[in-house]
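Known limitations

Structure tokens in this collection are predictions and should be treated as such. Users comparing against experimental data should check residue numbering before alignment. To illustrate the layout, the record for AraC family transcriptional regulator ligand-binding domain-containing protein is reproduced below. The input appears on top and the generated tokens appear beneath it.
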Amino acid sequence: MISENPIPILPTVSRAFLEDWLAALRLYCPPPQLAGFLDQIGLASTVQPHARVTHDQIVRLYQLVAVETGDEMMGLWSRTVRTGALKHLCASMRGASSLSAALFRFSSFWNLLLDDYAVVLETEANALRLLLVPRGCQDVQRFGHMLLLKLAHGIACWLTGRELPLRDVSFVFERPDFAGDYPILFPAPIRFGQAQSSITFDGVLGSLPVSRDEGEMQDFLIRAPRDWIFTSSREHALPLRVRELLLLSDRLEYHLGDAARALNLTPRTLIRRLDVDSTSFQGIKDGLRRDIALRDLSHGNKSIEAISQDIGFASAANFHRAFKRWTRTTPGAYRRRNSQK
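Generated tokens:
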């Protein structure tokens, strides 16, 4: 029997992505405090670097750190962003007449708070672009740049009631080893090693109305940062579109040619475009099988053998080998550490 409220199969992110955040937190939180945060969400600092991190764990860690430190940007900037700042930002932006006006309020708000960077809104005929312009010589905080640009996109999506596609997202830092995690967050081509970090919306979106009431804002804030970090995936980049096709197909034998036809591409073009995103059809398929396994091991009592069969493995032994390759741990050990009864 299918649950009335099935647990979604969300893309996980790599431990390396989390480590980028933890590197900043180690400079901000005393070691015992940070160790306590990680222990509460099941992410001990000794976890293997190939482990996967779920959306729930990212959300819970943000909530713990923001509340306990009193800084809603968790030490990512030189000035503390005190508790309540996000609420005031949302209240200001939801009073705007359009998306372009809301983005202007976003830039104005952060320019009152940040000493490190100016947030500049460039308005052109066919583009709305938010840029982070350094105030003097600044060390680049990769996670801080990502989080601030994602906040702009996430609140814009919430205000307009839809996930907004992006023209592009640029980062001033060089491409990290975990760059494959960024398309999970941003529905756009992502470029690294650019002159400035920026996020660009299509200009036609600027006239979209914003319409959110006080009750909706309170719900959004209670769930924060879930709704602004992890927006829906329907407008996301090609790898997540392929993933969605695999999810909807419900067929273990779904092949590259099937996905190419659904996307109106030739198989050769699909392979080439996925290669640009540093992935492949088989890699996406394996990632989906991995995330289904992680979900089912964390929730419910389905046997390991049943999970292995559900995701297309001929035997539990084959599943064990694949799972250990994905996470550097066994299915049983993962279940003991992460089970949520």
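For this record: The chain has three domains: 13-79, 85-223, 238-338. The CA atoms of residues 245 and 262 lie 8 Å apart. Please report discrepancies through the issue tracker.
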